[in-house]
Amino acid sequence: MRDVGVVAAPGSSSAGMGVGAVGAAAEAVAGVAAMQEEVGIRREGPEPHPDEPPKKRVRVPDGESGKLEDRLYSVLCCTVCLDLPKASVYQCTNGHLMCTGCFIHLLADSRLKEEQATCPNCRCEISKNLCCRNLAVEKAVSELPTECTFCQKQFPRSSLERHQKEECQDRVTQCKYKRIGCPWQGPFHELPAHEDECSHPTKTGTELMGILGEMDQNHRRDMQLYNTIFSLLCYEKIGFTEVQFRPYRTDDFITRLYYETPRFTVLNQTWVLKARVNDSERNPNLSCKRTLSFQLILKSKVNSALECSFLLLKGPYDDVRIKPVIHHHSFCNDANETDYVPLPISDSVECNKLLAAKNINLRLFIFQVQK
């Protein structure tokens, strides 16, 4: 630690400050320097906001001292987003680390741009076959401390989820009388006091019937899809098959990516499925929002209208989340194609999983309506 000296301004009297004041100033400066050294402050400028996301933290340069957690952070973080991976960790052939989200996003972008995906650090080729998981890094990251979003205390990442769900006294919870309409939510340690004073148990039967009526209406809306599926399973003619979407490029001046399945037979008819990305916008790789839409095409000639219901589900070996949506169309020789309808995936992350794969494997169900 450097010595701190106090130099009096020209023309001023040292007696004006006093020996005690000089000593106190020197001790204050030394104390601040010691505190900075203890907490490991290595950057100049204002302190970061406590709510600043981890990916905005500055990586520690090689050879610079600091807290062990910060040095490990700079070594184990993803080379793309500079954040610590929350799940699987992949590495290129030269050992550079990527979290699952960034790895899948790089593969999806390469599919959209019709380029070979490369590591952002060393530019070597990456793919699901060339890259492998780094289990040692995954275990090391799980032991690094992180803050609970509710109580701000630090816990190992491997135990944080259990703490936030079961143990944290500041975790957000809801009143047990939510089922009869209580909207309260707050810290867990305030729950007993609220439930003792909650007014919903004392409501009249008429008031509760109105609340339960709204809840039943929402429940019936959720059950409508499942009831429709069960009614479709009673149809006489039902067919299903595994379909594989393969990527192709249009022959236009500006090529666009689209997907198409080989011809397949269901219900003694020949069909084809087509899919497109972001409704065939010009540069889908420049957008963070990714969507897929598809259409069903009847290739056979029919003598009369073929009224069908159909839906797409995930394949037996994929982990993509698809919420079933039932579509209806009356197929005939003059109207053998459905409109493009959205593939009901939950978000852009799930869409990137499909785009990153070599082929998209789904399961198609077709129900023929008997007249």
Textual characterization of the structure:
Belongs to the ZFTRAF1 family. Residues 39-63 have a biased composition (Basic and acidic residues). One of its GO terms (molecular function) is zinc ion binding. The chain contains nine helices and 16 strands. With 371 residues, it is of the alpha+beta class. Strands 8, 9, 10, 11, 12, 13, 14, 15 and 16 form a nine-stranded antiparallel sheet that branches. The chain has a three-stranded antiparallel sheet with strand order 2-1-3. The protein has a two-stranded antiparallel ribbon with strand order 4-5. The longest helix is centred in the middle third of the chain and has 28 residues, at 205-232. The radius of gyration is 31 Å and the shape is flat. The model is unreliable at 1-58 (pLDDT under 50).
Percentage of β-strand residues: 15-25%
What summary fits the major beta sheet? 9 strands, antiparallel
**What's the N-to-C terminus distance?**
91 Å
**How many distinct beta strands?**
16
Task: Please specify the SSE layout and strand pairing.
Layout: H1 14-17, H2 19-39, H3 68-76, E1 89-91, E2 97-99, H4 100-113, E3 132-133, H5 135-143, E4 145-147, E5 154-156, H6 157-167, E6 172-174, E7 185-187, H7 191-197, H8 205-232, E8 237-249, E9 257-260, E10 264-266, E11 269-277, E12 292-298, E13 306-314, E14 327-331, E15 341-342, H9 348-356, E16 360-368
Antiparallel strand pairs: 1-2, 1-3, 4-5, 6-7, 8-9, 8-16, 9-11, 10-11, 11-12, 12-15, 13-14, 13-16
Helix pairs in contact: 4-9
